[in-house]
């Protein structure tokens, strides 16, 4: 079974992001970029499935600026076999990304596509579900465990009240939650090997997809800042403040 | 302009996040709601009581049990022509279903809105809430999930809307519910609680989370956790507060042994009053805390329990 893993290049999760002073967006110039953490979990899961002999080939796909090739290289160093880069300088929103991925899936015919449950930049949590819809496939979102047997994929999902397990007909879409696995660090030899793995480059037009954004960002503002309050000296003082000043207990 | 809101419910009625989604929809115009599932007499009666709702659609079919994404999305798509806006709360259910609906309608969803400026323009947090984006949709229909913490829920009672059964056509059978492992707790739900007390890695183990119990009991609080506490197995996943867990905005949030990473702050920084208990006075959580106590939690928690008991 072939697995496709889409990987997004995002501002590293450790970076304290700043809103641009002209309100046009978030400052990304000169900021450290990394693979979206949930996508690392997706790559790891695909590699484990390959190590178990369930998957035969892993294709990592990224979309956006040419530097997304670095994100693909990271996936290749973790164990993906080849990459596809869809280059575009348009703001690629989840609907466009899902359409591009569908076009790639139509060509590649994977049995499973594993995505992160959300990208930590736009926090949309949408692409996997949208891709499943466009392909007419089943979906197992927010996965903390998965197992494949025959034509059935069993996914344990993190839901609001706990865990839910569903059985899905393959082919299928999985989106990863934090507890699915702990992604490996690529070893130096694997990083070297990854340099030789192929990355095919294409444009949205090559895939026949119109990527015009449907959402226009009018402005981005900073959220109201919280001010640090006071330190209290004792538990008794804390309780008395909550009672008489804040009046919350 | 009429909106349709997908509701979630349990034995005690319509869930609070769904009632917040109804509140968000009411700002846009007339509101209809949908209850879907198998065996819905209680849920449809509860939905009819929501104030301001004009109509309750009831889709009762075995295939809709557990609101699996594939059939529920197909149902919403079938109902969509009559509506300008389709909404659900940003919950595990809403996040699972609504983007699927959007793609089937060729619409870019607008996830997790924290405000609505007009019928096309919405405010949503990005980058763990470090930016608030105002976005305008050019799609003719809007598919939206609603950040419950940003909208006061409508009351559970007071309305008297008519109900209408919808015919459920063929639904995709791509998925099957196998089992659920849901935590049973007498405490309020995290996203609905007036007080939340959360523990972090500083709690050291699951057993120590019991130190939070007498305080939670006294304050009627829900218990939450940081990702680190969940990853370490101290408490189950549904406790996680944060960018990629639950978003809460209670009157009082007490963070115990939590450092205050951006990803955690994203889930609780809109709380009215924040209290932090941490032994490291440099911990970033103190930068957002209204009341900070620099102390070892293992002495502070029993003291706090005793102090609350006394007063
Ligand atoms: C993709 C991604 C998503 C994430 N999503 C979330 C999320 O949704 N929610 C979330 O919370 N995190 C999330 N995180 C993790 C986040 O970055 C932090 O790692 C996490 O919040 C840290 O948890 P913590 O504060 O409990 O642990 P730590 O950062 O280890 O802090 C422990 C604190 O406890 C204090 N302490 C220790 N012992 C005591 C004691 N005896 N008495 C008093 N204080 C004590 C310490 O001083 C310290 O400040 C995410 C990270 C990533 C990469």
What is the secondary structure topology, with strand pairs?
The complex is a heterodimer of chains A (249) and B (311).
Chain A: E1 2-6, E2 9-11, E3 33-35, H1 37-51, E4 57-64, H2 68-78, E5 82-87, H3 94-108, E6 112-116, H4 127-135, E7 138-149, E8 152-159, E9 162-169, E10 172-176, H5 188-194, E11 199-202, E12 215-221, E13 230-232, H6 235-244
Parallel strand pairs in A: 1-4, 1-6, 4-5, 5-11, 6-10, 7-10
Antiparallel strand pairs in A: 2-3, 7-8, 8-9
Chain B: E1 2-6, E2 9-10, E3 13-14, H1 16-26, E4 30-37, H2 41-48, E5 55-60, H3 69-79, E6 85-89, H4 92-104, E7 110-113, E8 115-116, E9 121-126, E10 131-137, E11 142-146, E12 163-165, E13 175-182, E14 195-199, H5 213-219, E15 222-225, H6 227-231, E16 252-256, H7 262-265, E17 273-278, E18 291-294, H8 297-310
Parallel strand pairs in B: 1-4, 1-6, 4-5, 5-12, 6-11, 7-11, 14-15, 14-16, 16-17, 17-18
Antiparallel strand pairs in B: 2-3, 8-9, 9-10
Helix pairs in contact in B: 3-4
The complex binds flavin-adenine dinucleotide.
Flavin-adenine dinucleotide sits between chains B (200-202, 226-229, 240-245, 257-259, 261, 263-264, 267, 278-280, 283, 296-298) and A (13, 37, 120).
Explain how this protein is built:
The complex is a heterodimer of chains A (249) and B (311). Chain A has 249 residues and is an alpha/beta fold. Helix content of chain A is 27%, strand content 31%. Chain A has helices spanning 37-51, 68-78, 94-108, 127-135, 188-194, 235-244; strands at residues 2-6, 9-11, 33-35, 57-64, 82-87, 112-116, 138-149, 152-159, 162-169, 172-176, 199-202, 215-221, 230-232. In chain A, the strands form 2 sheets. Chain A has a 9-stranded mixed β-sheet, sandwiched between helices. In chain A, strand 8 (152-159) and strand 9 (162-169) form a beta hairpin. In chain A, helix 3 crosses helix 4 (127-135). In chain B, the strands form 4 sheets. In chain B, strands 7-11-6-1-4-5-12 form a 7-stranded parallel β-sheet, sandwiched between helices. In chain B, helix 3 (69-79) crosses helix 4. In chain B, strand 4 (30-37), helix 2 and strand 5 (55-60) form a beta-alpha-beta unit. Helix content of chain B is 23%, strand content 28%. Chain B has 311 residues and is α/β, with parallel strands linked by helices. Classes of the chains: A alpha/beta (249), B alpha/beta (311). Chains A and B meet through helix 3, helix 4, strand 7, strand 8 and strand 9 of A and helix 3, helix 4, strand 7, strand 9 and strand 10 of B. Flavin-adenine dinucleotide sits between chains B (200-202, 226-229, 240-245, 257-259, 261, 263-264, 267, 278-280, 283, 296-298) and A (13, 37, 120).
């Amino acid at each position: 079974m072939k697995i496709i893993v889409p990987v997004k290049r995002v501002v590293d999760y450790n970076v304290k992001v700043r809103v641009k002073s002209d309100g046009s967006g978030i400052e990304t110039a000169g900021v450290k970029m990394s693979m979206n953490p949930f996508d690392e979990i997706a790559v790891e899961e695909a590699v484990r499935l390959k190590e178990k002999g369930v998957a035969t080939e892993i294709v990592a796909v990224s979309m956006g600026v040419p530097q997304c090739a670095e994100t693909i290289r990271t996936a290749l160093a973790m164990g993906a076999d080849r990459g596809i880069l869809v280059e575009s300088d348009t703001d690629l929103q989840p609907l466009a990304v899902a359409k591009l991925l569908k076009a790639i899936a139509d060509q590649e015919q994977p049995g499973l596509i594993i995505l992160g449950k959300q990208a930590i930049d736009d926090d949309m949590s949408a692409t996997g579900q949208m891709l499943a819809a466009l392909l007419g496939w089943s979906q197992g979102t927010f996965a903390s465990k998965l197992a494949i047997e025959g034509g059935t994929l069993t996914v344990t999902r993190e839901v609001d009240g706990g865990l839910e397990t569903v059985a899905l007909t393959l082919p299928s879409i999985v989106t990863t939650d934090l507890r699915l696995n702990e992604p490996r660090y690529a070893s130096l030899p694997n990083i070297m090997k990854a340099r030789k793995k192929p990355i095919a480059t294409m444009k949205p037009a090559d895939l026949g997809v119109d990527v015009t954004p449907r959402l226009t960002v009018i402005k981005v503002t900073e959220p109201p800042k919280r001010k640090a309050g006071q330190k209290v000296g004792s538990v008794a003082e804390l309780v008395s403040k909550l009672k008489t000043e804040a009046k919350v207990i | 302009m009429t909106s349709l809101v997908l509701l979630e419910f349990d034995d005690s009625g319509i869930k609070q996040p769904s009632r917040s989604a109804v509140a968000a929809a009411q700002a846009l115009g007339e509101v209809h709601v949908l209850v879907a599932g198998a065996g819905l007499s209680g849920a449809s009666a509860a939905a009819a009581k929501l104030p301001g709702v004009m109509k309750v659609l009831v889709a009762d079919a075995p295939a809709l049990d557990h609101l699996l994404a594939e059939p529920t999305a197909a149902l919403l798509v079938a109902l969509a022509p009559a509506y300008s806006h389709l909404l659900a709360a940003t919950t595990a259910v809403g996040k699972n279903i609504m983007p699927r609906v959007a793609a089937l309608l060729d619409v870019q969803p607008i996830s997790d809105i924290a405000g609505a400026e007009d019928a096309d323009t919405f405010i949503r947090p990005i980058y763990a809430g470090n930016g608030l984006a105002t976005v305008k949709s050019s799609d003719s229909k809007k598919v939206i999930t609603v950040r419950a913490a940003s909208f006061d829920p409508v009351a559970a009672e007071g309305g008297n809307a008519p109900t209408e059964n919808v015919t459920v056509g063929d639904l995709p059978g791509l998925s099957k519910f196998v089992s659920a492992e849901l935590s049973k707790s007498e405490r309020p739900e995290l996203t609905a609680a007036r007080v939340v007390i959360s523990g972090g890695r500083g709690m050291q183990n699951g057993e120590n989370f019991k130190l939070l119990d007498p305080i939670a009991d006294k304050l009627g609080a829900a218990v939450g956790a940081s990702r680190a506490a969940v990853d370490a197995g101290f408490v189950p996943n549904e406790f996680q507060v944060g960018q990629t867990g639950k978003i809460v905005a209670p009157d009082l949030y007490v963070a115990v042994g939590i450092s205050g990473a951006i990803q955690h702050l994203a889930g609780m920084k809109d709380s009215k009053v924040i209290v932090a208990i941490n032994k490291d006075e440099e911990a970033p959580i103190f930068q957002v805390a209204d009341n900070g106590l620099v102390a070892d939690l293992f002495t502070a928690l029993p003291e706090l329990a005793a102090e609350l008991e006394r007063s």
